[in-house]
Amino acid sequence: MDRPEFHRLAERELNEAAQYYDVEEPGLGSSFLQEIDRCLESIEAYPEAGAILRGSVRRRLLRGFPYALLYRIKPSGIRILAVMNLKRRPGYWVGRE
């Protein structure tokens, strides 16, 4: 299976979070991106292991960061819908495909 595809807003969330962490502490953004990669590999290996959040949308929590990857399994592959900060309003991503 190909690497998961990111919704454009999920990609923006990913980049903004990494930049935020680098400003807070140099190198922390890289650690965040490494954890994103680990989580993506886990999703690729076990796509159905993520908890069902709503409908067919699943969630995988990141380790060490208050974030989750929200994704949907499609016939064409895995689509990351949101890189969700767990402290933000919870349903802001609803409606993304």
Your description of this structure?
The chain is an alpha+beta fold and 97 residues long. It has one domain (5-85): YaeB-like fold, CATH 3.30.2310.20. 36% of the residues lie in helices and 29% in strands. It is built from 2 helices and 5 strands, in the order E-H-H-E-E-E-E. The chain has helices at 8-24, 28-45, and strands at residues 5-6, 51-54, 57-61, 67-74, 77-85. It has a 5-stranded mixed beta sheet with strand order 1-5-4-3-2. Helix 1 (8-24) packs antiparallel against helix 2 (28-45).
Topology:
Blueprint lengths: L4 E2 L1 H17 L3 H18 L5 E4 L2 E5 L5 E8 L2 E9 L12
Parallel strand pairs: 1-5
Antiparallel strand pairs: 2-3, 3-4, 4-5
What value does the average pLDDT take?
Answer: 94
Counting structural domains, the number is: 1
Structural class: alpha+beta
Strand tally = 5
Can you summarize the main beta sheet?
Answer: 5 strands, mixed
Radius of gyration, CA atoms, in whole angstroms? 13 Å
The CATH class is Alpha Beta
Low-confidence segments, given as residue ranges, are none
Written as H for each helix and E for each strand, in order along the chain, the element string is EHHEEEE
CATH 4th-level superfamily: RelE-like
> β content, as a range?
25-35%
- Spatial strand sequence of the major β-sheet: 1-5-4-3-2
Assign the CATH topology: YaeB-like fold
Helix share, percent: 25-40%
Q: What is the CATH-assigned architecture?
A: 2-Layer Sandwich
| Helix count, DSSP H or I runs of 4 or more residues | 2
How would you sum up the global shape?
globular
